[in-house]
Each structure stands twice: as structure tokens, then as C-alpha cells.
Amino acid sequence: MTSLAKTTLETSRPAKRAKVADAEAGAAIPELEGIRQSETQLTYLQAQLAATEALYSAYEEELQGLSNQLKGVKQAHVNAGKPLWKEGADQQAETASGSLSWPGTGDPVAFDGDSFSAIEEEVLLQTEAEQEPAAASGEAGATGAEGPGAVLGERLAALEATCSAISQEDMEAQGAVGCLAGRSGRYYLRSTAVTLGRATDTKGDVDVDLAPEEAAAAAAAAGAGAGARRAGAGAGTGQGAAAGQAHGAPGATAAGSGHSGAAAAARHSVSRRQALLRLGPDGQFRITNMGRQAVVVNDVPLPQGQTVCLPHLSLVEIGGGSSSGGDSSGGSGGVRLLFLANLAAVGRVVRRSSALVL
């Protein structure tokens, strides 16, 4: 038994030596060492990512609280009748750092005087009670002060600039060189030459079908006429009755005018081939009146067969009278379109066309 135990012990010793040798060899392999280091780095990065996520959540909650606080301060300024965006611009010009402290808070908040959100909130949140004192002060100091009209003009100019920038991004996303905005929708111009009119079976299709705009304009004119009749009904009850007894003709006149209004509504305010809108090699849009209906561009009548330049933010009226003629409604059911040019796309088209010229 003793010899057998010695033999077993001697045979097991080489196996232990082989295991130790394999472990030492494994430790000496650089790939295994790199794997161990990678696992350690991965664990560290996971812990760092968890800490970053927790910090981001805390920052997000703090930012939300500051945003709610800023909205409350803006609302308080507007309710107090303070011109928030103009006041911010004035204080920003006075301070060298370009920051101001809101009332009730101790931390300075960076404020942009041309911020669209501040202007929009001031315009939209201003109530009638705030407008009446502004109008009264404007009438009292009309001799030496600018009055509320100048302030309203500044607001509209700022909103116009911001909306124009937003429209540029919208047209870039649509791949359009221009856009016609009407009552019923927007018409994106993806070609350098487009036709305006009405799609019919006899004349075929047009690039921009203004039939929906024609219907929307007629509905708007009908609504405005109904409102005017309701407003004048109460004021003219006594005088209208006396005049009716004296002459007896106003009833027939009213019926005739209603019939003529229905006939005018039945007529189309847009010709089937009304206008041609083209982008020239110089980067200028031009519109040509090819139809029988009247076309007015920026309160300037455009006769049939004539062409005029169409700048950015131009007003095109088709089938209605000019607003300078005394009719504030813009004509009897005429189509009104606001033209917006994608200046970036126009620049690209001009550069490509100039590169093709030898």
C-alpha cells in the first residue's frame, strides 16, 4: 500500500506543475491582459455614464423650473403693461455684459432683444384693457410722442422678420424657390416658371390652381357683407323707415343690389390663364398678367400683357380692386396672395445658371 500511494503522489505532481505552467503562460499572453484591461475600462465607463445620466436629469429638472419661472415673469411684465422686448433691448444696450436681472430673482438671465418668443407673447397676451390706456396716452401726447402706432409698427416689423426667416426654412425643406400664401393654403413654387389660373377641362391644368382661393375669397366677402348688413340694420331702422315712406324705392334698390351681388359672386375672379410667374437670370421674380381679370401688385395695377418685378413679401391681388382706391376690404371677393421668395434657393439657381453660360 505504501508503494502504491507513493506512485499516485508522484503521478499527480506533474499535473499540478502543468496547471501552474498554464496559468503563468496565460498571464504572459498580451491579448488576455488586454481583455482584462478592456473589461476594467468598460466597468468604469458604465459607472461614468450612469453618473452623467443622473446629472443630466438634475440639470433638466432645474432648466424646467427656470423656464416656468421665466414664463411667470414674462406674464407679470405683460400684465403690468411693460413692453418686455423693448425694455430688455434697452437694458441690454446699457449693460456691458449683455445680461439683466429679472424682478424677484437674483440670478442674471441672458436676454435677446430680438427674441421672437418675447415679442410674440407681448403681442398675443396683451389685453384690451392694456390697449385702451396706450391709445389714450397716444392721443394725449400726439404732438410730441410717437403714439401707439409706432410701437405697433415695431412689433409687426419684428414679427415679419421672424416669420420671414421661418418661411425660408420651410421653403428649404420643401425644395421650393418661392411660395404663394393665400387664405386656403400655401402654394410652393418648385420651378423657375409657373402659371397661375384655374384648371378647366377646356384649357387644361395650370401649375398653381387658384380655384380654392377663389372660393375662400368669395366666402370671406360674403361674411364681411353679412356683418356690415347686421351692423347697419340697427342704426338705420328709424331713418330707413322714414325714407321708405317718403320714396318707397329703397326696398327695390336693396333687392336689386342683392341680385347684382349674387351675379358678381357667380362670376370668376380669376382667369383660366391669369398670370405667369418667372425667375429671371438676375435673381428677380417677375409676374406677367395674361388674363382678363385685374391684377394689382403692391397697390399698383398691372394691365394685361404687362410685366412687373415681384420682390420678396409682395402682395398680389387678382380680381379685386386696389386697397388704395378706398375699399378697405381689398375688392369684391378678390384673391389675395402673399409672395415669399426663398433667397437661398434663388442664389443657388443664379450661380448654377451663370456657371452654364460659356
From TrEMBL:
GO terms for cellular component: Ino80 complex; MLL1 complex; NSL complex. Keywords: Coiled coil. Residues 42-76 form a coiled coil. One of its GO terms (molecular function) is G-quadruplex RNA binding. The keyword Coiled coil applies. Residues 132-148, 242-265 have a biased composition (Low complexity). The keyword Coiled coil applies. InterPro entries: MCRS1 (IPR037912), SMAD_FHA_dom_sf (IPR008984). Residues 92-102 have a biased composition (Polar residues). It comes from the Eukaryota. GO terms for biological process: positive regulation of transcription by RNA polymerase II. Residues 87-106, 128-148, 229-265 are annotated as: Disordered. This is FHA domain-containing protein. It comes from Chlamydomonas reinhardtii. The lineage of its organism: Eukaryota, Viridiplantae, Chlorophyta, core chlorophytes, Chlorophyceae.
